[in-house]
Amino acid sequence: MNKFIGKKALDFTAKAVMADNSINDFFNLKDYVDGHKAILFFYPLDFSFVCPSEIIAFNNKLEIFNALKTKVIAVSVDSHFAHYTWKNIPNEKGGIGSINFPIVSDLNKEISSQYEVLYEDGVSLRGSFLIDQNFVIRHYVVNDFPLGRNIGEAIRMVEAWDFYLKYGEVCPAGWNKGDTGINPNDKGIAEYLKNNSSKL
Q1: Set 51, 111, 157, 158: catalytic member
Q2: Would you call 51 a catalytic residue per the annotation?
């Protein structure tokens, strides 16, 4: 049973380390998103292995997300002290360095539980949620621990949602920015398949 797609995102208030390394004791998701789109992503643990690569990859693409009016928020079950310490260790020493989006502390594991990414050993799986301008979840995906995310795919989903809202056309398999969409009717799908089926 779907609990997320087309439903309001689950709001929360928690401690977070902000982009400027300040501690926000009352970080609120909805207030922070504030009418923008958002990528809310969960990762297992600070000071681990795949996780820093994902966080740095999101940070390296942050200008693209900003251009798409999409905020990025990370969450793990570590304390805000651990987040702060990890941010203040340079990459060459295994830290994540300067990260320009909030990292939320889910120490009591309530947020991970609500979003159903909490694994049985008490850490979060690699869950990513696309939240639209109306605070509604439009896409989510959850990876097992060894499988790092493709940040380009997160960007593609944001671009696909924007395309749908702008043109009213749906996005076929493998759609990328600049591609044609499908008019959601019998004539539209027939025309699309006539011109594109061999390319799918």
Answers
A1: 51
A2: yes
